[in-house]
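ok here's the first one, seq then struct tokens
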Amino acid sequence: MTAGSDAGRVDVDLTADVAVITLRRPQKRNALTPEMLDELGAAIDVVARSSARVLLVRGEGAQAFCVGADINRFAGLTPVQMLDWTARGHRVFDALAQLWQPSVAVLHAPAFGGGFELALACDLRVMSTDAALGLPEVGLGTVPGWGGTERLTELVGRARAKDVVLARRTLDSSTALSWGVVTEVAEPGVLETVLADLVGRICTGAPIAVSLAKSLIDAAADGAPARVLERLAGAVTSSTNDLTAGIEGFRTRTTPQFSGS
């Protein structure tokens, strides 16, 4: 953990099924420092080695999910230092995207810059109706540096990604939902209920099958042939106790108890 009242930190909490990573620097709208970015990477590693079935990524406080990198910390960086800063972010966000567990960004409040990029690195995004999203970097004289240009383009296409980045369009919840940036939108008072329902649906799936399915979808998005990978993944699931439990539950009309084995 970092020192100092303004330093911020990143916490990870594990239960039997759910892991929660929380950015804790509310007085600075959860702006990320290099130290917090390192802690985020360590937290992701903890989740990867855990038996949690789903990860929630949150930001502390009512003001923001995360407003991205702390401008005061990168304003004076040399080109070489900036290369390291952006590379560090890519390593951490790529590790998040590649987790075996599905991840959900809980967008209870605005997410801008690197905060939006953090949310884009998650598999799913649940957004409050009073939140907002954006990538305003060109207005500061720089560009998105932690995967935003790639991940946003994958979701919305080139023209809309250019609208968000070049024209600095801020996405409200209805636009984010209609464009496919977020998967669910809820009023602030029912956001946690909607989130709990989503988590419950993920956690009742067979863990190995859920993880493999996530990998298949990501591979397909990168151009890998489903006709090969689905056959291999299906062969893997055929040897699991979870498939046996799932078939038995189907036959007996009972809820299967998956063990992840």
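and now the second one, same deal
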Amino acid sequence: MVILITGASRGIGAATAPLLTGSGHTVLLVSRNRRRLEEVAGACNREAGKDLAFTLPFDLSDLPDLEKEFVSRVQALVPRVDGVINNAGQLINKPFEKVRTAEARSLLDINFIVPAQLIRICLPLMEGSALKHVVNISSMGGFQGSSKFPGLAYYSASKAALASLTECLAEELKETGIRINALALGSVQTEMLSEAFPGFRAPLDPEEMGRFFQWFILEGGRYFNGKVLPVSVSTP
């Protein structure tokens, strides 16, 4: 299988990649950070003993203007895409009244618009796949009824929008055979969590959550479609 992972240069995305390549799958790693992508891909390929990890340095906020270039670069690397993990995200931890409009728009773009457009762009790339599974990475911050935290209003709202999109697209695209699910994550010890909650120690590390991602992208579509699943030990 060929799995496209966004936000693959660090955190859970980077931890998931070697688990997939270690079990013989191909990964297409997407991030703005070329150097860190190359480090992740190099480690994957050394461990696998062959080239199964490919880098695609790309600023996903450029998709509206560079959609054709993105598709062309994907097709130059892999024959098709079987699964997508929409893992890239942005976080602003700032009191609501101090968040500027430009900051809010940037966050909503990265956390909601970009994943939505990436799904649309990948639909034809997934034709002929036996998997056809899209996993959107949401957050317990955007999960209805969960604990909410000051300073994360826009972040949580953007993740709630992504969760709702998941439910909508599962219905709208069901005739295509594509399965779309969202994982609402709780606390995982990533750089993003450390930025939001300095000094807090999460009960799970990226490698542990990466093992769950590995299983879910490959097998979760057999059991779930259009579901927003809380994956949380603590919040935070």
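notes on #2: The chain is about 45% helix and 15% strand. The longest strand covers residues 133-139.
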